[in-house]
Specification:
The complex is a heterodimer.
Chain A: H1 2-26, H2 28-39, H3 57-65, H4 95-123, H5 129-150, H6 163-186, H7 190-206, H8 220-251
Chain B: H1 2-40, H2 45-50, H3 52-57
Classes of the chains: A mainly alpha, B mainly alpha.
Amino acid sequence: MLRRLFLTALAAGAIAGVLITAVQSVTTAPIIRHAELYESGELPAHAGLAEPSSRSLLAGLAEVLLPEALAHGTEAHDGSAADDHGGAWAPADGLERTAYSLLANLLLGVGFALLISAGFVLHGREVTPLGGVLWGAAGFVVVTLAPGLGLPPEVPGSFAADLQDRQLWWAAAALCAAAGLGLLAFGRGWPAKALGVVVAALPHAVGAPQPETLGGAVPPELAGHFAAASIVVSAIFWSLLGWLSSVFYRRFD
Amino acid sequence: MAYLNDTTQEQTRARSERSVAVLSATLAILFGLFLVWGVGFASPMTIHNAAHDSRHSFAFPCH
């Protein structure tokens, strides 16, 4: 059983991790790099955009493969993830940075696929591809939608509350959403389902930690575009991961 | 009598299969959460910078 769970998660997580890295590298990653130009001061805060924020997917791909040829302005722009982090090591822009994103996405894919497969086992019913997509959708609600209501996806350079407070609230929101969704889906009788709604709403009743003032160097249009792109990419990732998990779970019986 | 014994054995086997399933699922959940925590939450700067774009893209709290 344990072997089946880990094989399923490895296969589903690896495929979803590779595919979502490709999607991110032409959707969210170009917006992150664009926002970092404002974060680092290379582009003046709230100036008109040097380039429109809605890029073509092909332009994003070219930036990954040919970072120097398409560098913004004349100055070299390397290791931008470390710009405000005390000069700690960071991957260089281009393929190296994408490679580390791939590694992170592979690990996330396997980690989340383990949770989905554990759901299959605990539920104990026959696993169908449609059921897999539904488990993926539940993951999307728990990990993206629920925490996102209080802490929407942020570009680098936005004002934000203390990191540890936000991490704690994020984890609480996801945990309560998971418990609440579980009660709604599997709880017997209306009291259990009502309790599910209350549990899921609890972190939002308390409220997510917010910065003292709103703002940041990044134009709000770019930040808004990023939040939308992040949620779309996450939806693709979770439906893929749920479906792939069900396919491999059935295969490794 | 033989029928009763069969039923008891059946129940025992189902129970032990279920406890193996619950134990496996628990281990999978713990390891899965460890991986997600490492990529999305761990504070060392090197891990943060390596996973930076993934953290932002998946809307984990960052910076």
